[in-house]
Amino acid sequence: MTIFSTIGLFIALSLLMALVLAMIAIVPWLRAPRTHSKSVDNQLLDINVAVFRERLAELKTDKDSGIIDDNHYDNQKLELERQLLDAQREVAPMVTPGIKSRLIIMVWVPVLAAMAYLMVGNRTPVFELWAAEDKVGQVADDLLTGKIDQPPAWAIEDGNQLISAMQTNVYRHAGDYNRWMRLSELFLSLEATDSALEALSRSYRLSPDNEEIATTYAQISFFANKGQLDANTRRVLEDVLAKNPAHEGAQMLMAMGEARASNFDQAQGWIKRLRDSISAKPGDHTQALSSLDELSANVTVQKQQASEGVEVTVKIDASLLPLVRPDDVLFVAIRDVNGGPPFAAKRLPITAIKQGEVVISLSDLDAMMPERTLGSARSDKVQLAVIARISHSGTASAESGDLSGNPVVISADQTQVNVEINQQIP
User: Fold this and answer.
1) Phi-psi region of 397 (alpha: psi -120 to 50; beta: other; left: phi over 0)
2) How far is 101 from 212, CA to CA, in rounded Å?
3) Residue 171: other Cβ atoms inside 10 A
4) For residue 138, is pLDDT > 70?
5) Which residues contact 366 (CB under 8 A, 6 or more apart)?
6) Which pLDDT score is estimated for 153?
7) What CA–CA distance (Å, rounded) separates 327 from 41?
8) pLDDT classification of 3: cutoffs 50, 70, 90
């Protein structure tokens, strides 16, 4: 079906619908009585007559009791009788319109409806989507259902058309987790990580027991979050391991995530568990075991570096807690008292703060540049200061409205420090 036939079908259906709706409104009018001699029943006539009779009776009573004289009585009676005669007039029926008026209405109602639809907004994206579905709609469906792995060359001449057709196809089959999974692969190939994660999350919600989808979702989330296990990723991995304790991919992600979170003992535990699982399988796994030994050695080095760092306890003044927003970011850094890039820094979501307090470890693992580390600063006897700031915008530079504390100077061998966020930057 071509774009012109699709538009033609759409216009025909729109006109038909407009005609049907117009007829619903016009048919009662067309059935109006044709005769001019038939009077319209006045349902209020009986009520009017009864009221006027009561008024006449009241006037008669007032005259008999001497409240009004004969002249006033006659005038009031005459006026009431005149009003009663006016109320008894026949109401003229509605005049039936001619055939020309009917035809004008029947033609212009659908025409105006179609014009209003076309003129309300720009319909170009709609026409472009129809064109994409006409051209590559079947290719998109074959890709999403696994019938083909690669689209033909002609289908990717305009990549936007294929992407639009695939997205539309997935939303039409929103309950198919496989389509969401394949759509996420498309987004990953385009390096659209956020869109890929959204598609994966939908696929996972539709099929939470599918290990492949769960581990892929956790893996993409893990690396998108710069190697950190957030609460959602941890929950997904724990669900996978609860159903399959020997799942190697989930164990590796847990080991890497715990190491990144400075939970070194837990990371070593996952490495040992994974090593035992691989060793128990038949075959030569020398390379895999060697990689695990290297990872374990790196975790040991990281643990040693972390032990030489500084444990920073950040507290927020109670009066400033109402100013904290859910999407704020906490920055903690150790830098030269004279300024310059920090030797160690961390950027954490505000959810890391519990009851107005959080404990953070800063060490050479948090160096921003390989040659500018906390260890080198201490060797050079650089006077250091610890700073903490809550940013509303999420940027590293301080801005008006951010919450901060005074820098706290520490000695070269100091391993613990308390910083209070107690002011708002004007």
Assistant:
1) beta
2) 68
3) 11
4) yes
5) 309, 344, 345, 346
6) 84
7) 70
8) very low
Q: What percent of the chain has pLDDT over 70?
A: 83
Read off the pLDDT of residues 67-80 as tens digits, 9 standing for 90 and up: 777 787 788 878 77
**Model pLDDT, residue 91:** 44
d(CA 254, CA 365): 19
Q: How far apart are CA 186 and CA 193, in angstroms?
A: 10
**Residue 12 to residue 251: CA distance in whole angstroms:** 60
Distances in whole angstroms, Cα of residue 302 to Cα of each of 124, 225, 309, 376: 57, 20, 11, 16
- How many helices (H) and strands (E) are present in the chain, helices listed first? 14, 9
* Residue 403, SS3 per DSSP: strand
Copy the structure tokens of residue 163.
């992407």
Q: Pick the closest to residue 426 from 396, 404, 395 (CA basis).
A: 404
What the block records as the tokens of 117 is 């639809």
> What's the pLDDT score for residue 339?
86
CB 208, CB 230: distance < 8 Å = no
What is the rounded CA–CA span in Å between residue 407 and residue 317? 15
pLDDT in tens, 162-195: 888 888 889 889 999 999 999 999 888 888 899 9
Query: Hey, what are 79's tokens?
Result: 């006026």
For the chain, how big is the Rg over CA atoms in Å?
41
CB count, 10 Å around CB of 201?
18
Is residue 381 within 8 Å of residue 349, measured between CB atoms? no
